[in-house]
Write a structure and sequence with these properties.
By secondary structure, the chain is α/β, with parallel strands linked by helices. It has 3 domains: 88 residues, 3-Layer(aba) Sandwich (Rossmann fold), CATH 3.40.50; 63 residues; 174 residues, Rossmann fold, CATH 3.40.50.300. It is 48% helix and 15% strand. It contains 11 helices and 9 strands. Helix 1 packs parallel to helix 4, helix 4 runs antiparallel to helix 5 and helix 5 runs antiparallel to helix 6. It binds guanosine-5'-diphosphate (GDP). Guanosine-5'-diphosphate binds next to helix 7.
Length: 361
C-alpha cells in the first residue's frame, strides 16, 4: 500500500524478494494508493474485491502486505480474501526461523517469534472480550484461556531467555580470548543483499553461503585473513543483513549477533552501488548502527557491484570520500564478483591496520 512516499517501487520489489526468500512464488504485485489505512480492512473494500478476484484467478494461497497489519485487519482480510494474509514482520520472522543455524541464532528467532505472538495474542483476546460486551467475562472460560495462553507464552519466553544468557556467556569468553590476542577485528555490515557474504568469501576465500535472497546470513561467521602488506592477520566477521524497518523485536533479538559489529575496530559498510536506492539503504544501516551503539566505530564505505554499472556511472577513481551524516567516510569501489578493486581494498585495509594498530604493551 503506497501511502505516498517516494521509493515505493523498490519497496515492493524488495517485498517480492523477501517472499521468494521465504520460499514463496509471487504471482502478482499490486499497488494500492491510499492516504490513510482503513481501520477494518487496511485498504478499501473495492480493492479487497479486486484482490480477491486476482487471488482466485491465480489460485494463490497467500496475500502479503508490505506494512504491519493489526490483528483485526489481518483477520478481516483473511475472511474476505479466503486465503492466508501476512504482513512484512511475519514474513521476516518466517525467514529468520528458516535460516537460523547456530544454537544462539535459533534461540533468538524463537524469542522474537514468541514476543510477536504474545503481543498479537493479547490484542486479539482483548478484542474478543470487547465483542462479548463483558457478559460473563470475569472468570469466564475466555479469561481462563487468555491466562493460560499468556502464561504458556510467558514461560516459554523465560526459558528461551535463560538459555540465551548461557549461550551469550560462552560467546563473551570467546570474545575476551580474542581481545587478549590483540587481533584486529573488522566487521562487514550493510543492507541485506549488498554483497557482504560475497565480499567475505572473496577476501577469505572461504565459502560462506551467498544467494540472491535477503538474509542469506543470519549468524556471524568469523575467519582470519592475512593482510600481506601489513604482515599481519586480522579477523573478519560477516554479520546479519540490515533491512528497512527491521521489526524492532528482531533488532533487539539479534543484538548479540550484531554485537560482533559493535566490537569491531573497523566496519566495512558494504553498499550495492548498482541499486538506485542505495542512499536510503545507507541511511537504514546507519540507523541500525546507532541502535546497537556502533555508530562511532571507524567506517569505510565499500561500493560493491561496480561491474553492473555502465561506463557513465563508473567511478573515476577506486578511492575517494563521501559525506554521510556529517562524517567524511573513505570509500572504495569494488566488485566482489569480478574481483575488481579487491587489491585496492586490501591495500587500504593494510594501511589502516598499520596506522591504527596498538603495539603490545
Ligand atoms: P549479502 O546479503 O549482503 O550477504 O549479499 P550476498 O553476498 O549474498 O549477495 C547478494 C547477491 O548479489 C548475490 O546474488 C550475489 O551473487 C550478488 N553479488 C554480490 N556481489 C556482486 C558483485 O560484485 N557484482 C554482481 N553483479 N553481483 C554481486
Amino acid at each position: 500500500v503506497d501511502f505516498g512516499h517516494a521509493h515505493f517501487d523498490h519497496e515492493l520489489e524488495e517485498l517480492g524478494l523477501l517472499a521468494e526468500t521465504a520460499g514463496l512464488q509471487p504471482v502478482e504485485r499490486i499497488i494500492v494508493k491510499r492516504k490513510v489505512p482503513d481501520p477494518a480492512l487496511f485498504i478499501g473494500s473495492g480493492k479487497v474485491e479486486e484482490i480477491a478476484a486476482l487471488v482466485q484467478g491465480h489460485g494463490a494461497s497467500e496475500v502479503i502486505f508490505d506494512q504491519a497489519l493489526s490483528p483485526a485487519q489481518q483477520r478481516n482480510l483473511e475472511r474476505e480474501l479466503k486465503v492466508a494474509v501476512y504482513d512484512r514482520t511475519f514474513l521476516i520472522l518466517e525467514i529468520f526461523a528458516q535460516r537460523a543455524r547456530s544454537h544462539e541464532g535459533k534461540l533468538q528467532v524463537e524469542l522474537a517469534r514468541l514476543q510477536y505472538l504474545s503481543t498479537r495474542l493479547v490484542r486479539r483476546w482483548s478484542h474478543l472480550e470487547r465483542q462479548r460486551g463483558g457478559i460473563g467475562a470475569r472468570g469466564g472460560p475466555g479469561e481462563t484461556q487468555i491466562e493460560l495462553d499468556r502464561r504458556m507464552i510467558g514461560d516459554a519466553i523465560k526459558r528461551v531467555r535463560e538459555r540465551l544468557v548461557k549461550v551469550k556467556k560462552q560467546r563473551g569468553t570467546q570474545r575476551r580470548q580474542r581481545q587478549r590476542n590483540q587481533v584486529f577485528n573488522i566487521s562487514l555490515v550493510g543492507y541485506t543483499n549488498a554483497g557482504k557474504s560475497s565480499l567475505f568469501n572473496a577476501l577469505v576465500k572461504a565459502r560462506a553461503y551467498s544467494a540472491d535472497q535477503l538474509f542469506a546470513t543470519l549468524d556471524t561467521t568469523t575467519r582470519q585473513m592475512y593482510l600481506q602488506e601489513a604482515g599481519t592477520m586480522v579477523s573478519l566477521s560477516d554479520t546479519v543483513g540490515f533491512i528497512r524497518d527491521l521489526p524492532h523485536g528482531l533488532v533487539e533479538a539479534f543484538q548479540a549477533t550484531l554485537q560482533e559489529a559493535v566490537d569491531a575496530d573497523l566496519l566495512l559498510h558494504v553498499v550495492d552501488a548498482a541499486n538506485p536506492n542505495f542512499p536510503e539503504q545507507i541511511g537504514q544501516v546507519m540507523r541500525v548502527l546507532e541502535e546497537i551503539d556502533a555508530a562511532q566505530i571507524p567506517q569505510v564505505l565499500v561500493f560493491n557491484k561496480i561491474d553492473k554499472l555502465d561506463d557513465q556511472q563508473r567511478p573515476l577513481r577506486q578511492l575517494d570520500h563521501m559525506e554521510v551524516q556529517g562524517r567524511q567516510l573513505p570509500r572504495v569501489f569494488i566488485s566482489a564478483q569480478s574481483g575488481e578493486g579487491l587489491d585496492a581494498l586490501r591495500q587500504f585495509l593494510a594501511q589502516w591496520v598499520l596506522e591504527h594498530r596498538q603495539l603490545p604493551d
